[in-house]
Amino acid sequence: MIDHLSGLITDISDKVLPRLSMPETYVQLSAYIKETVLAEDIPGARAQPWKLLGFDHSPDVLGEIALALSEIDAVLTELVADEGSANKIVSAGRTGPAEKALTRAADWARRQTQRRERAHRKQVATELRSLGLPLEFFWADGDPLKGESSKLAVAVAVESMVEWLGALEELVAKVEDVRELGEMPLFVPVLRGHSVPLYARKLIRQLHPVTDLEEFDQVLPSPLDQRLTGRVVASISALELCSALSVLGHEGELDERVAHVTEGAKSDYQRAVKEISGLGTDAVVTATVDLLEGMALRIEEEWRDESKAGAFAESMAEVVLGGASSEMETLEGALMLSVQWDADPSSATAMLESAED
Asked: What's the pTM?
């Protein structure tokens, strides 16, 4: 069990307060307050079963602690950005009753931080627009009481998914020069007016896929209707599961649970391929079905011990861990083609013909 209340007390008394007199640690201390104390300890303490102690809800003092910590962090943030602000922060704190000194100091610090944030956002937009790409910027302000920093999403309008790869490479190289410490911009392709969540990437230390668009769902262009892409993703997931289960071999067939999961995956694959076939008879749909059926035959070989068991699942896992495989390159091409088809079947057919040439 994790006792967030004890963790909160320990973190404040042992890790926050003692370091307030150590300016050299302010960068790390600010991050610790945001990411651990405000983002984890406070919510965890609020979620404790307070009713066991006769409380209808968590004590209001937790909110007061969160507010005080966010005010401390506001001051630390400004001091990290500009050491010369120290005297003005002290002056702001001394301009009224002592019990509100921290609040006044934090208010002054936040105003300076907001001014600096506006300048930073303008700089980011200017630098990225210098690439000449059709971009749109979305900023989401964080909640200081929850330890949230502001976040950035960059929407990139493309006519073809082939354009997206080059645009993303240029954007990452440029944003590395201007993003601030801890800033993790989200890049989203907008294909012919619709966002493509499947290819949205967040820059942390490296680019990572995202499972959803978080705060930006409501402001980004509506997602592309993935009639083909969604079914391709479903069929690949089913094939990956079948491949992983092949490692169990015939022993797995004797286990009813494994057999049930295997049959479910096969059924999911067959249903997805049938639905893909029902989308039409153009070259892209036909090529996609052929590719998926070829992969299914390979996985059947894994089950018959005619090839290495679990090889397909293993190659997929290697890619997730940062590796590469020729098989994944083929799948990536099929996915990009399916996304293009969902936006405009005729342009997808042209892409396929160009690739074949």
From this structure: 0.81
